[in-house]
Amino acid sequence: MATQQKEGRVVILGIYVTDLTFRADRMPLIGETIAGNAFKMGPGGKGSNQAVAAARAGADVVFCTRLGNDAFGQIARATWDAEGITARASVVDGASTGAAHIFVDDTTGKNAIIVASGAAATMNAGDVDAIEADIASARVFVTQLEQPVAAAKHGLEVARKHGVTTVFNPAPALPLDDSIFPLCDYITPNETETTALTGIEVSNVDDARRAADVLLKKGVRNVIVTLGEAGALLHSAEQSVFVPAFQCGRVVETAGAGDGFTGGFAAALARGADAVEATRFGCALAGISVTRPGTAPSMPTLAEVNEVLAQAGHPLSTH
């Protein structure tokens, strides 16, 4: 029996980690200890960050993952409860909840990250089957690559089976079998991930277009190459549109910006925006997030994103 797809609903499959963020003037060398300027612990993980971004952007979000039975898992549930996110999070006994070490360069705001997925590393196709009804009821399904590829691919397959729009964020960069690409209505790699997927070095918009053409030939319907402080390129067989970044203030921390883009993009799509509008919405959301510390905590509200869009003369025309 067909399930009615609900406007505004986004289902995300991914991982939660607790971010342990250290700020310093530079990275230490191997064997060296340096003094840090600050430390903060908070919620993170690509999938969970995208869920928070989408929820704050007005989406009805269901998030599927695995947690350990520990303090970090309690932080995860408290985070989702506070954001109104419906959690489908099974507990794996004997495994820890994921964690991430994040180094932030206090001068530039740029970052380097080590992620240990913990319990979420055991996710498999069964996790997807358990939420098939959720996926079938969604307008948009999102996944990434911090959990096993097999789980991500099965999620895309189930979403496609139910006619749900699929958004694949191929992060972190991993070698992928070409069979995953035809399952993607949208793929949202950054420059590094685009290079890894196509072999084309991406340093500007023209490079991004050439690389996007390679992904289209692999079967992706729409490619969105996120270009950091430059903006994003939406590229398909029908159109190629560069959306400039929104300058919303001094850059404090870029960690989570890509997650903000993908979560915001998915939320806008689910609420009826077209691809260009949704790309613009994602760029505006990411532009605000980089002016704030943290990953999930840096995500703005729908009102804040709408204000930036309105000031730029691009109000979102969703219903």
TrEMBL record:
> Where found in the cell?
Cytoplasm
Activity regulation annotation text: Activated by a monovalent cation that binds near, but not in, the active site. The most likely occupant of the site in vivo is potassium. Ion binding induces a conformational change that may alter substrate affinity.
Pfam families registered for this protein in UniProt: PfkB
- Report the record's Gene Ontology biological process terms: D-ribose catabolic process
Gene Ontology terms, MF aspect: ATP binding; metal ion binding; ribokinase activity
User: What enzyme class is recorded for this protein?
Assistant: transferase
Instruction: List the InterPro entries hit by this protein, alphabetically.
Output: PfkB_dom (IPR011611), Ribo/fructo_kinase (IPR002139), Ribokinase (IPR011877), Ribokinase-like (IPR029056)
Give Gene Ontology CC terms.
cytosol
Q: Which UniProt keywords apply?
A: ATP-binding, Carbohydrate metabolism, Cytoplasm, Kinase, Magnesium, Metal-binding, Nucleotide-binding, Potassium, Transferase
Q: Which CDD domains match?
A: ribokinase (cd01174)
Where along this sequence does the record place binding of K(+)? A255, S289, R292, G294, S298
| Residues of the Carbohydrate kinase PfkB domain | 9-301
Query: Which residues take part in binding ATP?
Result: N190, T226, L227, G228, E229, A230, G231, G258, D259
Q: Which pathway does this polypeptide act in? A: Carbohydrate metabolism; D-ribose degradation; D-ribose 5-phosphate from beta-D-ribopyranose: step 2/2
Q: What is its main location?
A: cytoplasm
Positions binding substrate in this chain are V17, T18, D19, G45, K46, G47, S48, N49, E146, D259
According to its UniProt record, which reaction does this protein catalyse?
D-ribose + ATP = D-ribose 5-phosphate + ADP + H(+)
Q: Which cofactor does it need?
A: Mg(2+)
Cofactor binding, per record: Requires a divalent cation, most likely magnesium in vivo, as an electrophilic catalyst to aid phosphoryl group transfer. It is the chelate of the metal and the nucleotide that is the actual substrate.
Q: What is its EC number?
A: 2.7.1.15
Active-site positions on this chain: D259 (proton acceptor)
Query: What SUPFAM superfamilies has UniProt attached to this entry?
Result: Ribokinase-like (SSF53613)
- Role summary: Catalyzes the phosphorylation of ribose at O-5 in a reaction requiring ATP and magnesium. The resulting D-ribose-5-phosphate can then be used either for sythesis of nucleotides, histidine, and tryptophan, or as a component of the pentose phosphate pathway.
Subunit composition? Homodimer.
Instruction: Write out the similarity annotation.
Output: Belongs to the carbohydrate kinase PfkB family. Ribokinase subfamily.
Protein name from the UniProt record = Ribokinase
Q: Quick one: which gene encodes this?
A: rbsK_3
